[in-house]
Amino acid sequence: MTRFPLVQVAALLHSAAEELIAPRWRRLEADDIQLKAPGEWVTAVDREVEERLSIGLKALLPGSAVVGEEQCALRPQLLGSIGAGLVWLLDPVDGTGNLVAGSGPVSVMLALLEDGETLASWMLNPLTGVMHHAQKGGGAWRGSQRIVARRASPPGGPGIVRTRFLPEEFKKHLAQTALEFRAGSNCAGEDYPSLLADNEFALYWRVLPWDHAPGALFVSEAGGVAAHLDGRAYRAGQQQPGLLVARSQQTWDRARALFPPLER
């Protein structure tokens, strides 16, 4: 397994957050904001953070590449490169819509991949300075505190269901069940850690790797489960829609039974 500079990565993320994101919170100008796709915002802050971190991360680990969300918006073919070699997978500002609105959480999300396997991940709230991070085989952490998934006995608490991209049959099925679910915070860097405390599961249909690779490792290292609806473990770069994440296998199984079967 590749050695990587954990402490230096955290310092780099904190620096970008403190200097580029926090000062612009609720101070964006109209020309800082663009609509890059229907319902999808990008800001000058996203681009500035991605540019700075791309330079810094490649310097920390020579020979590595950076694949960022904003790069991929311009060159979607970059997604095909994340399964080979050392790749930093970066979402410079997760929750850009919240940044634009000046409400709700945002996060800097980062994962280090080697040949497609997630080795480490970081999720930094730039407004509070709270860092959630994980290392494959090394556990999940909130700052210096190790996090272990809290078990509910029996499982039955609320979950997060992102309905925006769900197929119509899933939406109809949800309307007919007694499933208690929330919409989430529009920020995966906030919602993934919440699965170990306030929520029991989360269902996502669209599976963009920078949204899910960091959190999936974090939840898995805490004792939870991140798997596609057919039961296959999540791996960054797999584009099969439908990702169910839960704090335990028991909770995953229970939540999965509440959703319709996959079409054959």
UniProtKB/TrEMBL annotation:
Protein's UniProt name: Inositol monophosphatase
Top-rank taxon: Bacteria
Protein family: Belongs to the inositol monophosphatase superfamily.
Organism of provenance: Comamonas guangdongensis
Pfam families assigned to the protein according to its UniProt record, in alphabetical order: Inositol_P
